[in-house]
Amino acid sequence: MASEHKPLLLTDPPRFMEIVQNHDAEARVKGLNTLDDMMACEALRHGIYNDPSKLPELAEFYRRYFLEAPVERRREVYGHVAMIVEQIGGWTAGALTPFMLLDTDLGVVSTATVDYTSVGSLLDNDPMTRPRDVVMMIEKGIPENLAAVLGGLLALGDPRVCELIRPYRSGLNAEQITTVTKCFSGFTAKCVVEFYLDWLEELVDQRDYDSEAAYGNVVAGLCRLATQRRVPFIADGYRPFPVSSVGNGPWPDLKMLNPEEFAASIERQLLDLERRETAPRVLPHAIRAFGLTPHSSGEEIAAAQ
Hints:
By secondary structure, the chain is an all-alpha fold. It has helices at 8-11, 13-20, 25-31, 35-49, 55-64, 71-88, 97-102, 106-119, 129-139, 146-155, 159-165, 174-182, 190-203, 209-227, 259-276, 283-289, and strands spanning 234-236, 255-257. The N and C termini lie far apart (47 Å).
């Protein structure tokens, strides 16, 4: 698997897929050119064959060898696997779980979480099949980067998923909260803003150092939702699961809310939270980010970071 060789999955995709389906591990190693090929092959085999007995070997390979590769390379390989999964079908979405559960990079983990829940096939036509599956993995303590998995789930922008992960936010430290809030695609959903506001309600009256640090990081996430939005509306409604079920058409339950009207609808809660926060206050920055006017004086507002 010399590094100067190009991945077989790019140069000869049919041959690569033949090797993926070969159950002889030694033959797979001999037939593949690179570490990238090996990782993509074994991940895809996990998605296609779902053999639990092979999981320890896959996890060992990922941790010992693949995690040593640069992050950009890992992201590139993940992109190839995700593309193949989409082509084969959502029933192979398990191929994405090694990246979701074993990687440490925020981008790899959160993207894999979004993709796994978005493309994975359903059981008994239950749209929460894959999100519940991820929550079960969280319950078992499997993800290496718990916060990035939670952030990926939150980035789905679905109120049902927000309810699933609500119990886990209270156990996060300030650093993990920062990770969660950075998992943002530019698609601002009403339910996620409400998730953050409710989170602030839990923290605002607590005066210990950890709670105040957590509060500040949640506010930073709220600012991000307001200032880094890439679409001209606030999304409301249910996300289709799997997303492929709607093709290239609009999501049937999607409502597009006017940002100014939405900001007005949360103004009272924001100002109440502002009143309860001790000075120097950070929430005024989020209030301004939503185009509203804080009630705090300049001296009561913390300097922008």
